[in-house]
Amino acid sequence: MGERIHATYWLETGGNPAQAAEVIAGEQSSGTFVALATETPELKARAGARVERLEVIDTASAPSLPSPKVSTRYTRCTLELSWPIENLGPCLPTLMATIAGNLYELRAVTGLRMLDLQLPPSFAAAYPGPAFGVEGTRRLAGVAHGPLIGTIIKPSVGLSAQETAQQVRELVAGGIDFIKDDELQSDGPNCPFDERVRAVMRVVNEAADRSGKKVMVAFNLTGDLDKMRRRHDLVLAEGGTCVMACLNSVGVLGLHELRRHSQLPIHAHRAGWGYLSRSPALGFDFAPLQKIWRLAGADHLHVNGLRNKFSEPDESVIAAARAVLAPVMPEAAMPAMPVFSSGQTGLQAHDTYAALGCADLIHTAGGGIFGHPKGVPAGVEALRASWHAAMEGVPLARHAERVPALAEALRFWR
Amino acid sequence: MGERIHATYWLETGGNPAQAAEVIAGEQSSGTFVALATETPELKARAGARVERLEVIDTASAPSLPSPKVSTRYTRCTLELSWPIENLGPCLPTLMATIAGNLYELRAVTGLRMLDLQLPPSFAAAYPGPAFGVEGTRRLAGVAHGPLIGTIIKPSVGLSAQETAQQVRELVAGGIDFIKDDELQSDGPNCPFDERVRAVMRVVNEAADRSGKKVMVAFNLTGDLDKMRRRHDLVLAEGGTCVMACLNSVGVLGLHELRRHSQLPIHAHRAGWGYLSRSPALGFDFAPLQKIWRLAGADHLHVNGLRNKFSEPDESVIAAARAVLAPVMPEAAMPAMPVFSSGQTGLQAHDTYAALGCADLIHTAGGGIFGHPKGVPAGVEALRASWHAAMEGVPLARHAERVPALAEALRFWR
Hints:
Two copies of one chain form a homodimer.
Chain A: E1 4-13, H1 17-27, H2 41-47, E2 50-60, E3 74-84, H3 92-99, E4 111-118, H4 121-126, H5 133-141, E5 148-152, H6 161-173, E6 178-180, H7 193-211, E7 216-220, H8 225-237, E8 242-246, H9 247-261, E9 266-269, H10 273-277, E10 282-284, H11 286-296, E11 300-302, H12 314-325, E12 337-340, H13 349-356, E13 362-364, H14 367-370, H15 376-392, H16 396-400, H17 404-412
Parallel strand pairs in A: 4-10, 5-6, 5-13, 6-7, 7-8, 8-9, 9-11, 11-12, 12-13
Antiparallel strand pairs in A: 1-3, 1-4, 2-3
Helix pairs in contact in A: 6-7, 8-9, 9-11, 11-12, 13-15, 15-17
């Protein structure tokens, strides 16, 4: 086939960078810690990972991560490796072991973070990618332009199915486009999935019958596979238009299986993203990971939001969102929607739009909607108006002169 | 039910530890960043996570992980939280989102590492645990006492199916108990799974017909679910006695599905363990994670080895191995076998045995066996003899006086 997989890392090493790069390439392909007679030059040429690029960035006097191999100088580099597809075939689970396996444990490594991933077309042939993406989501949600204005059921857990439906009733009446379950709320005895779906969809369907607009509700069906399939079927049967899964709970394998079964868009939550990304010297940027999730079938991907309440910096949020909006590979776009959340209000609309250049996204706010003194309808109107202003290039304060709900929102948003 | 889930963390915070603990408990249950009228005291008492224990360990002047919330003093604590099972039910995927979800991203957190996990009996009722464990593995491998002496096919990738079988032939003739595929080698075009299994099992079965001893080969079937099932069926049909999966590739959901389908022990590889554990201030100890993997069905769990070639310290290796040998919960032992690997020889036998007090384990060596000047049979004999000595309390050098293969091994092991 001749196809190769390329992964790029930020690498820190206390040793010689070129040697460290070769150790990493060896460990992740045909090599091991000791020289093997069976690793012939022919075999290495055929199956060995290749160091494509190694560029020194800077040095430090202390290691970012502990290693028994102590040094006085730690060199940080950009390292690009490539692998022949023949080593593994277009298989996402084995791809994970190849690009994100033992290498993170090596002694020569005192920092390793995956920055980028380029996959050959055979992956797109093996994995269908999102079934709905931007266009399918817009169609089902009845939102042709601008972001889907959304919110999250709160409290995260503890509401009964009926209480959840009551909250949905208020949101639907308020003109919301999109509602999601919390990532903690799947099928607990306090709020059984089936009961919740039936109660919520009764509200959503009644409103759709009246208004012609069906609010998209992402029901969190995270769980074991047979249960996810059964839960999906219930959502579909009740007329629902979206399901939600926690990526780090169901894994690449689980998401792919859900995608094979699903007739609805898959809203993908990143709960656990912190343990994969919080150390700048370890783990992953979201750009490479989200490609894998999209190949496995994610239609919507969480990216936090600008000035969010968590620790993720704005530049990381925007890089993630841009990655989600970019093609998975030149041969297969597999469009998906970034989902902005956490401490969001209309105040982030202009900056978010300016950074992305488009509004193919879901913008969810909790307090930014519920906190509006005139209630949920005014909160939804204000957030939507902010996006109108952003997309029209009108300053928020000026637009507020024409939209009283926005003017009032600007007094409590901060 | 009244059951609660308990998780313990090492926590570092730049703020007041009691406040940080409450923020974490809130984020992972009924709370959010803003006060909600709907989060009533009754709801919080029913669904809220509880701070069970908060003990200050020490303080530092700089944060372990970056946070926009800057402080002059960072307090490190032991934090134990508990959740009512009613929030989620006995569901491993939602458990992950609950105990290892958003909390790692909080601003108040500048370090968070999971140290312990105590699960209530309903999890053991919902998940069967390993089907074979120690006893089933010993029976299938024909090893009643002492460790299974094992090795890994090397080069990791690049050998053809026939070349792999040729290496297996040498190992089987040398008296090995256990052989595993590399985590990079599943079903790549260079060495297709089916061809490899057929070629290897021909060798293994022929030897078993002659000697009555069938070497256990852990075939790496990591991949998408339908392919894993089909590959398992082939291994079973060919008379194989073990399959291997990469945990971080197939996830808890994939492992559970494999367990439901499998009629063979599941050898669980931790590739990627580094990105979950390498920063001391982030991620996981193995003790809590391995409980989840065992509930999902892992029979054998990798733990590195003493004085391994990777960066994991010995105390972490031994803590992991002890955890794998301990019951998952008082009500359900779910015994599994720790697998020692990486830079292993007979020199680690005494220390490993002394630290564990038992030999219900798999000890794999590569160079420690292949490097023996008298060949593979002598390498296997020497490693096995080291364990005899360890279990009998005889010093290695003294035992070597009676075992020439060991005496010779002691001249090249280091």
